UniProtKB/TrEMBL annotation:
One Pfam assignment: Trm112p
Gene3D superfamilies named in the record: 2.20.25.10
Family: Belongs to the UPF0434 family.
Alphabetized InterPro entries for the sequence: Trm112-like
Protein name (Swiss-Prot/TrEMBL): UPF0434 protein theurythT_06690
HAMAP family: UPF0434 (MF_01187)
Signal peptide: none
Amino acid sequence: MAFDTQLMDILACPVCKGKLDYDKENQELICKFDRLAYPIEKDIPVLLENEARRLTQES
């Protein structure tokens, strides 16, 4: 089973409530505004700020 991309219509960043982008290659949901990447583990998004990875300028 893979991540259900239809969820993208209802998912939002828990910090700013903004739109998230799906990074299929890294299995992450990206908030460009807060520069956070939320992991997707076992096809389930982990939308916890303390579990998010900070994005660097290069990523």
